[in-house]
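$ fold --in a.seq
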Amino acid sequence: MAETISVITAFKTSQTTEFEWLWSLFRPGCDVVVQNNSATAMPIEWCAKLKSFKVRENPNGLHWMITVQHTAFNGQWFGRGETDVRFPAFSGTVPIAQLPAYLLEYHQQKDLLIEASVECGALYESLRAGSSRPSRHAMVREYLFIRRFVESR
């Protein structure tokens, strides 16, 4: 057990990980940043809550998958959505912030991302129709889950 804790601590200190140790980064309910680097010239990032994780095997090998919960809009109503994020197997050590999703605490501009999410959440809230508008308490909790384009500043 001491060796496991030592390895996890070393990875967290260096902000890197290996495929076999992905499980040590994520715990259900933690705040994560999901990033899509292929949709636009600038990466799209949004905050979400980790719901679950699992390892899957397919013809191309192992991949690790997490399910995250976030605020979503279906064109008419705002609510909660779920997205699966896959981590294809990789060899060697990679920076945590280069993973398809990673803990919010490792984001280089964490405060800006949270601020942008809150601003975007306020805009979304102003557009909500009556029955899809949550209570004030629920609304504050939702702001961190709002999808947001994050521009590098």
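$ fold --in b.seq
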Amino acid sequence: MTEDDAGRRPGENKLDARTVGTAIMAGQVENVHVNPARHAYLWALLGAALVLLGGVTWWALRDPGVERAADGAPAVTDAARTTTGEAPTTAPAEPTTASVPAVQPTTTTSRRPWATAPPTLPSPAPFPVPGPAPVEVWWEGSVTVKGDGGPRGGYFFDHPEPREGFTVGDLAFGDATSVMGDEVARWTSAEPPERAACVRLQAGTTSTRASAKAGTTFCFRTRGGRVGYATVTGTSPADPLDPSISLRVLVWDLQR
């Protein structure tokens, strides 16, 4: 290949009439290259974009009341007919009033051992509370208290055997008709009293004298805190020189 006077190779800057139909008027055209394959590719790309845009637009603006039938033809739904004013082809379903059978309750017996109530056990018998120990009799016997005819005296019953006292004692001679004591209270029942009965009786009104009439019973308390009772069994003859009163006495020991 040879170059011309301008230094160009043969075939350069020549326009091909098949690709460019427009004449280019210029004093001098240099280095112009036209590629027909590239232009065709761009046009094809632009056309595909336009087709895709048109499909998206149609999909967005299509009527939702029109559905496609199984054979490809559009099927108009009742909603579409309502919109366009046409009567629907199917009548609305009428409400049914069929009664629903009541569900009967069922009782299920669980086989789980922990779901059943435990057997009822008999209540244990109450533990017996020991009451107070019975009080033993401290002393029981007969005494005679004397009056003015001899040494006037009485008896103290806090000893294993009663001891005489000069003019004084837990029980002492008062006069021909009475017996003296620190705390005496008459017992009116025909049966002899229990210790608890005497304690209750002495919790009320007490006196320092009890009647010396035969058969009279009264409760008394010793100076050591023991409780007892005495019954008048007789008196001496009406002798002012030697009066006396006979008593049957029982004294209980102290409460432990």
